[in-house]
């Protein structure tokens, strides 16, 4: 079994999730391999991605 590594530049964590590249590239996360179809994200970057993908909503509530 292959143990995938997070695809975000500078990250060496093992991946938890796999997302389509489109979903990830629009959040501005920088990828090691921009040509890949699926992006693997570690726990940390998956959280970050979730935040970023919600970030299209204006920041009415302020930072927590
Ligand atoms: Zn990562």
Summed up:
The protein has 64 residues and is α+β, with helices and mostly antiparallel strands.
Question: What does this protein structure show overall?
Answer:
The chain is α+β, with helices and mostly antiparallel strands. It has two helices and two strands; from the N terminus they run βαβα. The protein has a two-stranded antiparallel ribbon. The termini are far apart. The mean pLDDT is about 85. The structure holds zinc ion. Zinc ion binds near residues 42, 44 and 45. Zinc ion (ZN) binds near residues 6, 8, 11, 42 and 44.
Strand order across the biggest sheet? 1-2
> What is the count of helical runs?
2
SS-derived structural category = alpha+beta
Order of helices and strands: EHEH
> Major β-sheet, in short?
2 strands, antiparallel
Report the sheet-strand fraction.
5-15%
Helical content (DSSP H or I, runs of 4+) = 25-40%
Name the average pLDDT.
85
- What is the global morphology? globular
Question: Are any ligands bound, and if so which?
Answer: zinc ion
Rg for CA atoms: 12 Å
Distance between the termini: 40 Å
Features:
two-stranded antiparallel sheet, alpha+beta, binds zinc ion, 2 strands
Q: Would you spell out the secondary-structure blueprint of this structure?
A:
Blueprint: E1 17-20, H1 21-25, E2 38-41, H2 43-54
Antiparallel strand pairs: 1-2
Bound molecules: zinc ion.
């Amino acid at each position: 079994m292959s143990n995938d590594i997070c695809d975000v530049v500078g990250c060496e964590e093992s991946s938890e999730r796999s997302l389509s590249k489109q979903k990830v590239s629009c959040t501005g996360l920088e990828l090691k391999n921009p040509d890949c179809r699926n992006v693997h994200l570690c726990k940390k970057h998956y959280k970050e991605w979730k935040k970023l993908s919600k970030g299209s909503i204006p920041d009415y509530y302020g930072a927590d």
